Amino acid sequence: xxxxxxxxxxxxxxxxxxxxxxxxxxxxxxxxxxxxxxxxxxxxxxxxxxxxxxxxxxxxxxxxxxxxxxxxxxxxxxxxxxxxxxxxxxxxxxxxxxxxxxxxxxxxxxxxxxxxxxxxxxxxxxxxxxxxxxxxxxxxxxxxxxxxxxxxxxxxxxxxxxxxxxxxxxxxxxxxxxxxxxxxxxxxxxxxxxxxxxxxxxxxxxxxxxxxxxxxxxxxxxxxxxxxxxxxxxxxxxxxxxxxxxxxxxxxxxxxxxxxxxxxxxxxxxxxxxxxxxxxxxxxxxx
Amino acid sequence: xxxxxxxxxxxxxxxxxxxxxxxxxxxxxxxxxxxxxxxxxxxxxxxxxxxxxxxxxxxxxxxxxxxxxxxxxxxxxxxxxxxxxxxxxxxxxxxxxxxxxxxxxxxxxxxxxxxxxxxxxxxxxxxxxxxxxxxxxxxxxxxxxxxxxxxxxxxxxxxxxxxxxxxxxxxxxxxxxxxxxxxxxxxxxxxxxxxxxxxxxxxxxxxxxxxxxxxxxxxxxxxxxxxxxxxxxxxxxxxxxxxxxxxxxxxxxxxxxxxxxxxxxxxxxxxxxxxxxxxxxxxxxxxxxxxxxxxxxxxxxxxxxxxxxxxxxxxxxxxxxxxxxxxxxxxxxxxxxxxxxxxxxxxxxxxxxxxxxxxxxxxxxxxxxxxxxxxxxxxxxxxxxxxxxxxxxxxxxxxxxxxxxxxxxxxxxxxxxxxxxxxxxxxxxxxxxxxxxxxxxxxxxxxxxxxxxxxxxxxxxxxxxxxxxxxxxxxxxxxxxxxxxxxxxxxxxxxxxxxxxxx
Lengths: 287, 503
Known about the structure:
By secondary structure, chain A is α/β, with parallel strands linked by helices. Chain A has 10 helices and 12 strands. Chain B has 2 domains: 45-283 and 482-502, Aldehyde Dehydrogenase, Chain A, domain 1; 285-467, Aldehyde Dehydrogenase, Chain A, domain 2.
């Protein structure tokens, strides 16, 4: 008699805990062969608001960490994914990727996390500077995180697309509320387990599952989200920009498509720049 | 000597027990006028500037531009219509494709250097025109607006052939045609902030100045002609908000740059939703100016006065909320009152004028309305005496003490010479109050303690922090806001990148 395996209940990762939607709603997810896989929480705008609250709590502490420490924690996240590399490849393959493509996606994701980990204590030196003003003042421009950033991941690649938007946002000290791929949410759920064991403080990255159409309006209008980074189509772009106007929210859209996510050009210090604020400080020079 | 009053100092030196003497002139003396007399060389009528030429608007309509200091007409300004905006964008598009976009950077640079030099040559003439048109004191137009505008062109000129250093690791390219809409508080300077980086990158421009302050923009077109700037690289269309909307909503521009109110900034964001246009917005502010008990108080008072009364308070980064540490609150208030008693309000063309004319009747009404709300909500008002000119739009420097965070005068941008004073006891309270606003453009901090300056510099959520100084600007120094004060930066390397795309 064969043993019946224990199936895992997928739970989004919010505020350092694994949650169900407050609504109690789920929707069934099939794997690539069309078999029932699991019920995925269908998160609501209330869940999104709760996640923003969790991100707000984590924000100041995360921003105050030293850049060196944030870099090490991101690197640790890379270690966690590397350690469970095969499991993640299997999951991506289970939901439609060819296994070679799944392996490639996981490897690039790990490398991208390490890439951004290395930027933690360097981007400031590349993006900021001392300014030679024509008066007796010491004048310099530094960067600061914006605060809480909403991330809306592309449908595919489910893992790499998500992390390509999340990593450059958190490396500077922002916290993130992310919406997983709607078509393929489970890799993000599994990734939540790696976030939980990566030394990343709870609430720095929060991941929600569900229907994009239900959550985009709240992503666009929630005034505590200071920025939105989204890989979405024209209609969602318009909705996000319309809602963003109310609180002069910064909105960035990714135009990356398909295999371009795998390229080095899909990662850059300028993705970090998109979600920082420049602050310029003046002080007189004198006795 | 009877006209000099000996005023008891609020800070009695404990050691001697003797009050420190202070001279209070008040309005005991009438000063002789010291008018600036240079010729602003105004034309009777100004046309639109499109494709390198002054052209009449298709509608044939003009509107008067008045001097807010005496309400007399200065000139007539062309009223642009939709067809004129179309023509301006068509010219800009041609100039981008055929000339400017492919010109080597070092050649573009030389045009910008020329422009800077030609503006320096005519600095006094432009300063007078700026003061007549906008009402700002001539000493500010002469010593700040015009030289700083020239400096912006000079600074950005040098970038035009060094663009590979703007974005390390990437190459940059111009965006194409840019639409720009600027406000009335620093007409020529805002034009320079907008044009110089856009042109250095290789973009071409359609710009609309504010309807009350179009003169120096159109005079600047003469400089562009004298510099031999290729036709269509810069185009000016004049008129009110509907012309601005036509500039912003036109399909041609790849980017819109706007400086103005947060209210209009939000309208622009909504109207550009669903387009691919890039944006930078430099919007309103309600800056906190935080004074600690160890600050050099006399310097701080000068900084507070400069922070709120510079340009009649028509400054988006004005230090309009003074947060004073309780132990020195009394002393600072007394010193401030003494200081503003000797500010001279009146004819902007007088070289001794500190506070000139309010830019327009509608702005004056807005200031009156907010000041009335301050009194109604229970804050204590102080205004010095003295006569104001009979004609024109003037407002006395005004201080409100006993202001609380819920008062409208502590929350809304007044854009006038009105200071709201609040107090705090601890560093944390100061930070909390300073950041308790939807805006985040600038902030000031006054203290002798270096580590406290650096802490406040981190904790104050604003794009510009002035420590032991206020209202300082430079082309090399990025300027722009957090939160509802807008996004993007102007000036410095950071500002340049906002006019480029990465390739």
